[in-house]
Amino acid sequence: MSNIQKNVAVVVPVFNEESLIGECIDEWVTVLNSLNLSYEILIIDDGSSDSTVSVVESYGDNQDIKLIRKDNEGHGPSILLGYRKAVSIAEWVFQADSDNEISPHQFSLLWTGRQGKDAVIAWRENRFQTRIRHAITVIARLVTRVLFRCHLRDVNIPFRLIRSEVLMVILERIPSETFAPNIALSGALSLMNYDVAECPVVFSERASGDSSLSDLKAVRKGSRALLELIKISRVFS
What we know:
The protein has 8 helices and 7 strands.
């Protein structure tokens, strides 16, 4: 941890988001500069087949933006790769998705709330979900409550700020291929008695494109995630 230079590293996993990634990067640069933070934005490309990489590469003159390309493995492994890169870069690690469903301009709420905390986890106010997605969300909350004694409102939200030294300890016990690592992270933070604050944020539907995870895929992947969580919980118990 002695080589850390930055205040925060922002991890943004991305897959086929050519229409949104430029706006996402621009907003994060604006927000982080407005707070006078030293930072690095890590764009983790999960084998995009569109022009996503070209858009990110157009920011090549900005040394605070780094593109990390990898084979297509899924959202979870992309998040974990970003986390593992980020903990050696900055004192704090923040994860956000590229679709701007939660505006980067709400980051300051979490940044202000970090004092004396090990992590700040957001929760989405007035979030619209299909019945299937809502059921999956409720199940995820119940599972983490049983397995990890976790009572966070939004256990899988991609808008979370974690102290690097804390995240590094947890990452050692989470397999790199984990499908839903943020749920496991939420559980681990609770089970290991870290000091976690919660912060409400406004959620908006994505402006363009479709989510890569349909309701049907979510149900199929949910079973896999449940088995993974059971195994991971045993490592932390």
